[in-house]
Design a protein that fits this description.
The structure holds two protein chains of two kinds. Chain A has 14 helices and no strands. Chain A is mainly alpha-helical. Chain A starts with a helix and ends in a 7-residue tail after the last helix. By secondary structure, chain B is mostly helical. Chain B contains 14 helices and no strands. Chain B is globular and about 55 Å long. The two termini of chain B are 28 Å apart. The chains are: A mainly alpha, B mainly alpha. At the A-B interface, helix 6 and helix 14 of A face helix 6 and helix 14 of B.
Chain lengths: 325, 327
């Protein structure tokens, strides 16, 4: 059973992805694709498919997998089950960086924007870890609380500057994940996060050991600080890439790793493919649902995920009266 | 160090705060005024009235909420109360249409909104604080806080979900009331709110000694003969009414109450609600009026006060959390 399930899940996600290609306002179906004008220039359905639908579906898969994996990574590094980029100040700091770039250097190419956002995300996450070290009583639930509050403070800073400079709308855009504006040429940054996810897979065993704590890791011959640094860089860059492309997808990195760990345990190399697959699947499903609910219009994925994610998070919190990992 | 840490008596503190508050109100009304006085007084008077009402509602609701939860770090806003209020408002329009909702008498409308808010929040937080039928298994404070915050996120996402699926024209008619600020306050709503707040206060003032007993904790309160269940429920109702009022008037200000309530305990150094409540109210009004005054006259901009408060309040929250007094 364990051997066949992973390919099976992959096929399931593949079907979702194919479905995602055919959902939308303009008519794209097998009939219009192959029965279109013969011989001439590429007809409209093919055009829509190549320029809009395919990039969107790819972006969904890449962003979903990447955010879920960085959630898992962050949970390993902080050793807390309730942490993910949007409950650790990482995402909020990245948004702060994005805003500062569009304020100070609006001409900067997208890669430069992402670099600045990553640096800010790294700084914010570092601040989060530094504060955590100061907390005398480390109940597992204090950790996300500190992260959420830190995120709130950073958001207040962002909004204060944005308010004065009329950037509130851009900030709102980064705060709410939305794939409706993804076109060919506007999502390629996400391949970078896919590469980072690959790096995370290669180093998965080290992260598993690092997740057992500094002393155990050092005893087992691992440079704990280096592994931590690598993990934080991966998480920050991934988060920044996703926010720069499609905006924040809340709770994804929290829900998926928790559900996978309930089923499969905590060996990262074993669970990472599952986390990536489930992340992609959840994002695909939410996006398709968001496109179908109010059909010619659509609901952004940030909102869909906010509803579904927070409901699932509440369930995790209240499941066994504060059973906290 | 003098042996007596309480250098000023609470009465002197309250007197000083009142004087400062009056001074800031006077400055707010007169500073930089050019033009016809009857216009300025009416225009600024409405703003002042809104700030006083909101400061009052936030301060009292936070202190009372902290009393029944026995904790200095909880506020109704942190627990998602005002996002719940917005969701209920949106839901009402979604269900019955803006036409019907708008044609209602504002007092009746406000009454319906507050009533549904009280019922919903009462049930929800009753369940939360009483461990959802898990008997005496009292929930940890951190769990409670986290659950509250996540509920807030859930309500907010649900509201924006509803706002997407609602007819855009329908929604436009209520949107203004959901996102008001100190500069455009509905005068009619202001009057209704003032009356409601007055009524709550009259009831609350008669209960002030019960609050003191409730603050001792559940077991002590029961031992001292307070009908704990009923008293807590009554406080929850008062809190939801006050939160509805402040949210309806200016929108959510998450950390403001936390800041004021903690400051009040700091300056008054007493646990008697007859002293703490007025101190918190005075501090709230003073902060709002003086803050708005500085922002408008010194920095020259308008509605950003809530953002500044959010920033300072958030820092204070982190500080309290890190200091460990959240236990």
């Amino acid at each position: 059973m364990p051997i066949a399930t992973l390919p099976l899940a992959t096929v399931g996600i593949g079907l979702l992805a194919v479905w995602s290609l055919f959902v939308g306002v303009s008519d794209v179906s097998l009939a219009t694709l192959f029965g279109g004008t013969p011989g001439g220039a590429p007809d409209q359905a093919t055009q829509v498919l190549l320029v809009s639908r395919l990039p969107r579906t790819l972006a969904l898969i890449l962003a979903g997998a990447a955010m879920a994996v960085s959630g898992l990574l962050l949970q390993m590094l902080v050793r807390n089950r309730f942490v993910e980029p949007s409950t650790a100040g990482t995402a909020e700091s990245a948004i702060f960086g994005m805003m500062m770039v569009s304020l100070l250097a609006p001409e900067m190419p997208v890669f430069g924007r992402m670099a600045v956002a990553s640096l800010c995300a790294l700084a914010g996450t570092g601040l989060f870890l530094a504060i955590l070290r100061q907390v005398p009583l480390r109940s597992p639930l204090v950790v996300p609380l500190v992260g959420i509050m830190l995120g709130g403070v950073i958001t207040a800073m962002t909004e204060f500057v944005a308010y004065r400079q009329d950037l509130i709308q851009s900030v709102r855009g980064w705060e709410t994940g939305d794939f409706s504006a993804i076109l060919l040429g506007r999502y390629e940054l996400l391949w970078l996060s896919a590469a980072l996810t690959g790096v995370a897979y290669l180093a998965a065993d080290r992260f598993t050991v690092a997740g057992m704590g500094r002393d155990v890791a050092t005893n087992l011959g691992i440079d704990h600080r280096k592994v931590m640094a690598l993990g934080l860089v991966i998480v920050s860059m991934t988060t920044a890439a996703v926010i720069a492309t499609c905006g924040m997808i809340p709770f994804l990195g929290l829900i998926v790793p928790n559900v996978v760990s309930l089923v499969r345990g905590d060996n990262m190399r074993g669970s990472l493919p599952w986390v990536a697959l489930m992340g992609a699947g959840l994002v695909l499903a939410c996006d398709i649902a968001g496109r179908l609910v109010i059909h010619p219009y659509e609901i952004p994925i940030g909102t869909m995920m906010g509803v579904i994610g927070s409901a699932l998070f509440l369930y995790l919190l209240l499941r066994r009266n504060g059973h906290a990992g | 160090m003098p042996a007596d840490r309480r250098i000023l008596s609470p009465m002197v503190v309250l007197g000083g705060l009142s004087a400062l508050t009056l001074l800031s109100i006077a400055l707010f009304m007169t500073l930089g005024a050019r033009g016809k006085w009857d216009f300025i007084l009416a225009f600024r008077g409405t703003k002042i009235a809104a700030m006083v009402l909101v400061g009052y509602a936030v301060a009292v609701s936070t202190v009372l909420f902290q009393t029944i939860t026995n904790n200095r770090i909880l506020t109704p806003s942190v627990m998602g109360f005002d996002h719940l209020y917005r969701m209920i408002q949106t839901l009402l329009v979604f269900q019955f249409g803006s036409g019907l909702v708008a044609s209602l008498d504002p007092r009746l409308r406000f009454g319906i909104e507050v009533a549904s808010m009280v019922v919903f929040s009462g049930l929800l937080y009753w369940w939360l604080f009483n461990g959802a039928g898990r008997g005496d298994n009292r929930r940890s404070l951190h769990l409670l806080l986290l659950v509250g915050i996540v509920f807030g996120v859930l309500f907010r996402s649900l509201t924006s979900f509803l706002q997407r699926i609602i007819d855009p024209n329908e929604f436009l008619t209520v949107q203004d009331r959901l996102f008001a600020n100190f500069n455009r306050v509905d005068v009619e709503l202001l009057t209704v709110s003032a009356l409601v707040v007055l009524a709550v206060s009259l009831v609350g003032w008669r209960w002030r000694r019960t609050f003191d007993v409730l603050a001792l904790g559940r077991d002590a309160a029961i031992n001292l003969g307070v009908e704990h269940r009923r008293a807590v429920m009554a406080v929850l109702v008062m809190v939801s009414i006050l939160v509805s009022v402040s949210t309806a008037l200016v929108g959510p200000i998450t950390f403001f109450g936390l800041l004021v309530a903690n400051l009040a305990y700091l300056v008054v150094r007493s646990h008697r609600h007859a002293l703490i409540l007025p101190a918190a109210v005075l501090l709230a009004v003073l902060t709002l009026v003086a803050g708005q005054l500085v922002l408008e006259r010194v920095f020259g901009y308008n509605a950003a006060l809530s953002i500044v408060i959010e920033f300072v309040g958030g820092l204070a929250f982190l500080f309290i959390l890190v200091r460990g007094s959240a236990r």
